Known about the structure:
By secondary structure, the chain is an alpha+beta fold.
Amino acid sequence: QNMSAHTASGVALSRSRMLWHSHVSRAFSKLAPLGAASSLAPLGTLQSCLPASPLFSRRRAGLDEVLFPRTGAYSALTGAPRSFASSSSSSSEEEESLERDVLPYDVLIVGAGPAGLAAAIRTKQIAKERDVELSVCVVEKGSEVGSHILSGNVLEPRALDELIPEWRDDASCPINQKVTKDRFVYLTSGTHWTFPLTPPQMRNHGNYVTSLSQVTRWLGEHAESLGVDVLPGFAASEVLYRRDGSVAGIATGDVGIAKDGTRKANFSRGVDVTARATLFAEGCRGSLSELVMEKFAMRGVAQAQTYALGFKEVWSVPKEKHNPGYCEHTVGYPLPSDVYGGSFLYHMGPTEGNDTLVALGFVVGLDYRDPNFNPYDAFQKWKMHPRFKSLLEDGTCLQYGARTLNEGGWQSLPEDLHFPGGAILGCSAGLLNVPKIKGTHTAMKSGMLAAEVAVSALFDAADGTAGTDEGPPANLSSYSKAVRNGWIGTELAAAANVRPAFGYLGFWGGLIHAVLDTYIIQPLNGGPSPFTIPHHTGKGGDRTSLKLAADAPTTTSTTTYDNVVSFDILTSLNRSGTNHEHNQPSHLKVNNMGAMEEVNYKLYNGPEGRYCPARVYEWVDGKLTINAQNCLHCKACAIKDVGSNIKWTTPEGGGGPSYTLM
């Protein structure tokens, strides 16, 4: 299928890609005189430094006829026009500056995580197999690929083996430490005992201890080598729709807007990135993914998603205490028996010249009931347990971070994973296997399946638009079936009842049920359990689980940090590399501050001040202060807020954490 017009388009895009990199280099040279501060500048602000480029072409003919009209600064998300105050621009200058540039692609992927990059790589692989040209773009809100990626991480290589079979022969691949031993441990406040058997879901024979932030950087380089345009520092802030209601792409956020809404000297409009197939791979509770799922009623009869909050640190420990490939998971102390959660400890292989790194973390189900419970303090108490303190006390904490995890599994999987013009991938769809504590392999596989369906939709069209970016939206309806009927669906169905049982039965009851389900019920049934246990949180999700403060236990103990193994939250936050431009509108939108004060503070004792892992929310004399610049982008606030008053949106591109070892 050698289509000359499309081939020419591919050559032009390849040429534009080279121009893009040269423009970024020029932008950095412009910032160089700023000195050390320039290294902290979010890359999204580089938009304002970039000269005109073929990559940023003006609206192509006919685009306004298929997109909803955008008058001035029309917002495709809300349907309402934006307005920006500016004392320095004339009317004509203002209208010119409001015009947005357009980047047309065949396939657009939002998010450079495992799912998004796997989709990009597989799309290019199939195009090469078919001997056709396909333009593929990945936009990523982090300052670089991997900077917003945090995971345990013990990697199951099943999907990677399918995607890049030769990865073990690549010297640049950071996946090199096989798991050597598994242990499953129960903790009390002063001692521990090891379970005689490790649950089969948690056995890691054949898996690898690694850093997912480094793996995604490697995948990003692989994608670029295939011709994918990977654009970090570009935060997708809006969904673009065609007149027929289908998704047409995304718009990146404007940069250079001050807190008061006026334009700063570096003001620059975002760009519209359009495609016939748009794949959302934003990770857990992706902001645009949630909007698209709501608009197209994709959840259907699925139960509300339930979540957990995970903390992670990477330490360098003395060589004599390091055991490469050793993996340990614990349950019990310091969590109450009615709180689902546990910990992990993974001894990593050689990483960036350091041979003695360990990754450790603590996960807490966000369906906990006590409004006075503090997940961060529980994490710090866990590290002070004699079993872990002896490992860490002579070491150095290098990085800290936190993120939320989908725990709804099979019951919360959206009824439809596709929509007109695209699909939802990976953790945005909720594909984490909870008993395994793994979602990278399922995320990557979902990206590969979406790529295969998208390419078929684009090139097998019978309406004469095959292989062009001018045509109807891609129909990815077979993607939902491919996920459910393939090994992703098989895994999630087998694990369906483990997590919800803990919600009803508590720790010991849930553990006994998991044993019965794994060793008796499923073997007798010859597959997944014949019944499905619903999540106890119901339609309202985790935000409905909190008790009123008057009905909760009175908290009298406080956590003491020794600054050797345990640390206060701001000290930890400093290790995340988090940075946002301070003079920008807050990306954390509170719909009703009065309700926050009357309900959250007075009735629930201000729980957001405790569940946030970055001290974004602080109550002072009954008034809420929002430190948006601290945000780790975990989105726990959008999940746990009792009144559903907090809306998480994307800040300027490039803002947020800067993970390198996570």
